Amino acid sequence: MRPTRKHHSNMSRPAGRPSHMPNGTVPFNFKSYFENEAYIFYGYVGPVITVFVIIMNVLLIATIIKGKFRTSTHAVMIAIAFADILTGIIPVPFNVIFFSVNHVESFLKIEWCYIFEICQIILPAVFHLISLSLTVALSIERFFVVSFPLKVKRFCTMKNGILFSISVIVASVCAQIDTFLDVSYEPVEIISRNRKFTLTGCRRLIKTKSDEEFITRMFILRFIPCILLIIFTLLLLRKSSDIQKWRRQSTSTSITTASLERMDFAVSLIASIACVTELVTASLLLNEHLNSQYRITPSNALLSGIIYVAYMTVSPINLAILCFLSEKL
């Protein structure tokens, strides 16, 4: 059963039917999120999974920081953990207030429109793609570790891992900086038919891009990282298999050798899961965009909610892989 809708003066319009806009444009509202129960993913399922993700990632970060883990691999793992935390936690306050507590289906004040765009759409996408880029960096870093074992202690330090992660983050943010400029909101005055109230609502204005531009952007930010993940995962698995004999001869114990092999496999498995997840979700998003052309429709609101939950679900799976396959984590 759908919960009873509530209205609050600081977020939504008072009761009453708004007048039509002079040009026929409908002011921005959340009806699309409630028409096919998409709000359930944003207001209930997503926040619960996000809490679990935050706990898991905080434990991972604390374990690495407090332990004797000082390699570049662990530095990149910490960066991924922070990116996953931010991906999940940024939209939670907004989603809980609007979709879980208040069930706001009506028009938003202009200031809440900008908060929605930043917290619900822009920043989660930015940090998710940062996490994806860092996962690619993790597979590349691990491949370097396996390919040049004699140089590991010199180059693959925690400091270099931090610098490497920061470089990847900066490059990822720069590649997405235009997303902050694609959408803007124009204030519009909404007057009820009985003229008992007025509300400064908003009209969502989107910078027009051709399908070719959008596809190119998707290919660069989502599909190319997946291609790199496939390439370096295969190279890592092959190199790890080739170096097993050398490791057994050069390392002091079989436990150390087994630990290194488990870490190689863990990174490969994480990269594979991230690649499959991203390929599927990116393909769905691309298809939905071609049908909706940037509009927030009931179908893409539901799809975005499901994908948001899927991203949050993959994060603890990756951490579980690290916990079970990497000795000490």
Structural account:
By secondary structure, the chain is mainly alpha-helical. It is 71% helix and 5% strand. It has helices at residues 31-35, 39-66, 72-89, 92-101, 110-147, 152-155, 158-176, 179-182, 211-250, 254-292, 298-325, and strands at residues 183-191, 198-206. It has a two-stranded antiparallel ribbon. Helix 5 (110-147) packs antiparallel against helix 10 (254-292). It is elongated, with a radius of gyration of 23 Å. The model is unreliable at 1-24 (pLDDT under 50).
Describe, in short, the structure shown.
By secondary structure, this protein is mainly alpha-helical. It is built from eleven helices and two strands.
Topology readout:
Elements (H helix, E strand, L loop, with lengths): L30 H5 L3 H28 L5 H18 L2 H10 L8 H38 L4 H4 L2 H19 L2 H4 E9 L6 E9 L4 H40 L3 H39 L5 H28 L4
Antiparallel strand pairs: 1-2
Helix pairs in contact: 2-3, 2-4, 2-11, 3-5, 3-7, 5-7, 5-9, 5-10, 9-10, 10-11
Q: Tags for this entry?
A:
329 residues, mainly alpha, Rhopdopsin 7-helix transmembrane proteins, two-stranded antiparallel sheet, 71% helix, 5% strand, disordered N terminus, transmembrane, membrane, transmembrane helix, G-protein coupled receptors family 1 profile domain-containing protein, GPCR1-related_rcpt
* CATH fold type: Rhopdopsin 7-helix transmembrane proteins
CATH class: Mainly Alpha
Which class of secondary structure composition applies to the elements?
Answer: mainly alpha
The main pleated sheet reads as:
2 strands, antiparallel
Kindly estimate the percentage of residues that lie in beta strands according to DSSP.
5-15%
CATH architecture classification name: Up-down Bundle
- What count of helical segments does DSSP give? 11
Major sheet: arrangement of strands: 1-2
Q: Bin the helical content.
A: over 70%
CATH superfamily: Rhodopsin 7-helix transmembrane proteins
Tell me the radius of gyration.
23 Å
Indicate how many domains the architecture comprises: 1
User: What overall form do the CA principal axes indicate?
Assistant: elongated
Protein name: G-protein coupled receptors family 1 profile domain-containing protein
Pfam families: 7TM_GPCR_Srw (PF10324)
Subcellular location: Membrane
Keywords: Membrane, Transmembrane, Transmembrane helix
